[in-house]
Design a protein that fits this description.
Elements (H helix, E strand, L loop, with lengths): L1 H13 L2 H18 L6 H8 L8 H26 L8 H12 L3 H34 L4 H18 L4 H15 L2 E2 L6 E2 L13 H19 L18 H23 L6 H14 L12 H16 L1 H7 L5 H12 L8 H4 L1 H22 L3 H7 L4 H20 L2 H19 L5 H23 L11 H22 L14 H6 L1
Antiparallel strand pairs: 1-2
InterPro entries: DUF112_TM (IPR002823)
Protein name: Putative tricarboxylic transport membrane protein
Keywords: Membrane, Transmembrane, Transmembrane helix
Length: about 500
Amino acid sequence: MGDLDLLWGGLQAAVTPENLMYAAIGVLLGTFVGVLPGIGPAMAVALLLPVTFGLEPTSAFIMFAGIYYGGMYGGSTTSILLNTPGESASVMTALEGNKMAKAGRAAQALATAAIGSFIAGTIGTLLVALFAPMLADVAVDIGAPSYVAIIVLALVMTSTVLGSSRLRGLVALFLGLSIGLVGLDLNTGQPRLSFGVPQLVDRLDIVVVAVGIFALGEAMWVAAHLRRNPLQIIPVGRPWMGREDWRRSWKPWLRGTAVGFPFGAIPAGGAEIPTFLSYVTERKLARDQGEFGKGAIEGVAGPEAANNASAAGMFVPLLALGVPVTATASVMLAALEGYGIQPGPQLMTEQSDLVWTLLASLLIGNTLLLVLNLPLAPLWAKLLQIPRPQLYAGILFFACLGAYSVNLDPFDIALLLAFGLLGLAMRRFGLPVLPLILGVILGPILETKLREALAISDGAYSSLLGEPLAVVVYVILALALVLRLVLARVRPAGFEPDDIDVRDEEKVNR
């Protein structure tokens, strides 16, 4: 009960009129950005990160939690209405949700996605409050070899699980690791990959990298396949669910939560695998097998719950170990570091008030998401009718403003353009973005821990297997890679890649 008492104390600190206002603003802004075509929660958080600058840490993280959950809700909205997932974890939602929308059940699809997300997010946050302190206590005794193993697990799993090609994932990872090398060597003090440019002597700001890769890269990709006509969307009534919809949804919500949280709590590559497993599970358990592929509500409820439970679970390794396992977690890690807070084993004791307020803010943001956004679903749908030139011009403006606000240096805008071109090239050649972002953030940490482990053992590489936890992690990595190969051979019947428009512009290009 001690941890729950601390969570209750954080909730009391967070529930003030000012903080509730910041949470509501965060939810509305996150949904506003997340509902735009092709923009997932990671890009929404990266784009709106500068909005939190200047606030006190508690208020900033409460607003950040609202942006986070709002961006996730926006991603499910575009998946259902446009068949255009903003991220790979929303693919399964698009598979059945868009079929429901075309059958005139868009309101029910949006409702089961929102309510399932609320239930899974609430349960997941409570589980984080229980497990993160326990993991932090254990992590205090973790040595450098185990940290190296955990980071390698996060990097390799994320790179090989995402996308259709493991090679492309690894190429993106090594690009990120190379970008992470820019700046002074922490041991020798010598500049690396700075090319004589003084501004590159310091390490690159992750905000500039993330906004350039996500926001600018996406805007350039859309501009390269620009259509001036607005997207044709499906009319949305007031989201509601009938008695039969509730009966068919509540079990998938709980099963999806049970499947999703463990995958988020370990460095296992995000929510793609649990959403896939949840969809397969619901299809196996469905009474009417023929309804799947035509708009089964279970196929929306289960994967959406798994997605949000996994998203809540990712706070366990983020807070307790300082290891982000998703693109959104990477951007949130950058936000924490921007306030001089380094997640890890000591965070739960050194910044306990802030941690428990942050966890409480997740509950607040999750609740406000449901209260505010269900009635506003028709309004968010109308935003999708904004012509593309005006829409992405605004995105470019805020991206440049956010990059400049980091250091008030015009050079950062040039860097933003460079990373935007890199993001465009990655989309053109099918390279996943998440491994690059993780490489930029975790690369320097991996280098530091690797050097520490080798320094203790006088350069003996066998020391990297010198701790039981390190051996266990490498075994998990091997098993996970085998699971990846098995899942690649097993697809749900009737599931074809062409059923899902991962990006509407890609169809134009083809």
